């Protein structure tokens, strides 16, 4: 049985990823700050309560991984929206702590346990490639992760471990809906030629496909219903 570890497991994409990996027969260590939210995920799930942005939290996660780790999926993230004029230093720093430092330092802590043939998958965002006002901390932190991922694909690749990023566009989760009403969501959906936003399960199925494809590494896979493919009519 393969073992996977998923951060942000209580959220929309994280929970869907845990469910998708379970359905493929993985044992899944599911990391969240709210362990209670994870117990409902069922058999095969090992809940790990941890704050990713602290050294203690990352040490707790590393201690919970007893054997070889086949799939490491970094899903946890925060998405503050502050334009430059009112952007707080604290917002910038917290965003990088959770979105960049936490997954990179957790990867470093878990690297000795990553099994040959395994994969490290970072959930980033299309905002790293195509900007929107008010997203500086978020877009920059996700772009930094994609840069780091390419280096990791070279360093970890030497021992058969792959690294890649999955960059979703708008996906219907609590993060996407925060501060938006139904009309806002409908307006965003209209930006895609498909006329809708994505579903967390659609991202999760790409995570599983990427984890299983033994030649996929060093790449950023976009999943956004063609929202960033070009200009709308
Ligand atoms: N939804 C979208 O449109 C979209 C688009 C592009 C990229 N993404 C990316 O997809 C990922 C998942 O987002 P989502 O939409 O599923 O959002 P979500 O429902 O808000 O989930 C975010 C998750 O991050 C975890 N998290 C946040 N801060 C944490 C911390 N300090 N320590 C540990 N865990 C922390 C939360 O877990 P706990 O609160 O339980 O600890 C939560 O499970 C994020 O990286 C996000 O940037 C989302």
Quick take:
With 233 residues, this protein is α/β, with parallel strands linked by helices.
The whole-angstrom Rg is: 17 Å
Largest β sheet strand count, sense and barrel closure: 7 strands, parallel
Ends distance:
48 Å
Q: In percent terms, what proportion of residues is strand? A: 15-25%
Round the mean pLDDT to the nearest integer and report it.
96
Task: Describe the SSE topology.
Layout (H helix, E strand, L loop, with lengths): L2 E4 L5 H12 L3 E6 L12 E5 L5 H10 L4 E6 L14 H22 L3 E10 L12 H20 L6 E7 L5 H4 L4 H8 L10 H13 L7 E4 L10
Parallel strand pairs: 1-2, 1-4, 2-3, 4-5, 5-6, 6-7
Helix pairs in contact: 1-7, 2-3, 3-4
Please give a structural write-up:
It is a single chain. The chain has 233 residues and is α/β, with parallel strands linked by helices. The protein has a single domain, classed as Rossmann fold (3-Layer(aba) Sandwich). The chain is built from seven helices and seven strands; from the N terminus they run βαββαβαβαβαααβ. The chain has helices at 12-23, 55-64, 89-110, 136-155, 174-177, 182-189, 200-212; strands at residues 3-6, 27-32, 45-49, 69-74, 114-123, 162-168, 220-223. Strands 3-2-1-4-5-6-7 form a seven-stranded parallel β-sheet, with helices on both faces. α1 (12-23) links the parallel β1 and β2. α2 runs parallel beside α3 (89-110). The termini are far apart. NADP nicotinamide-adenine-dinucleotide phosphate is lined by residues 8, 10-14, 32-34, 37, 51-53, 75-79, 98, 123, 125, 168, 170-171, 173-176.
Keywords:
single chain, 233 residues, alpha/beta, Rossmann fold, seven-stranded parallel β-sheet, 18% strand, binds NADP nicotinamide-adenine-dinucleotide phosphate
């Amino acid at each position: 049985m393969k073992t996977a570890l998923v951060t942000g497991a209580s959220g929309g994409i994280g929970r869907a990823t845990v469910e998708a990996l379970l359905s493929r027969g993985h044992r899944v260590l599911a990391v969240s700050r709210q362990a209670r939210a994870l117990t409902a995920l069922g058999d095969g799930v090992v809940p790990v309560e941890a704050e990713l942005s602290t050294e203690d939290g990352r040490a707790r996660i590393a201690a919970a991984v007893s054997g070889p780790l086949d799939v490491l999926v970094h899903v946890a993230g925060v998405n503050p929206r502050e334009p430059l004029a009112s952007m707080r230093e604290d917002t910038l720093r917290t965003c990088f702590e959770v979105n960049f430092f936490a997954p990179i330092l957790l990867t470093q802590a878990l690297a000795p346990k990553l099994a040959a043939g395994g994969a490290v998958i970072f959930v980033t965002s299309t905002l790293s490639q195509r900007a929107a006002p008010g997203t500086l901390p978020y877009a920059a932190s996700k772009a930094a992760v994609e840069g780091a991922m390419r280096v990791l694909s070279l360093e970890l690749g030497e021992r058969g471990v792959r690294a890649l990023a999955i960059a979703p566009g708008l996906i219907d989760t609590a993060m996407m809906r925060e501060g938006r009403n139904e009309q806002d969501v409908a307006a965003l959906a209209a930006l895609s030629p498909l006329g809708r936003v994505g579903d967390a399960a659609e991202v999760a199925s790409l995570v599983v496909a990427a984890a299983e494809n033994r030649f996929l590494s060093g790449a950023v896979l976009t999943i956004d219903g063609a929202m960033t493919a070009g200009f709308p009519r």
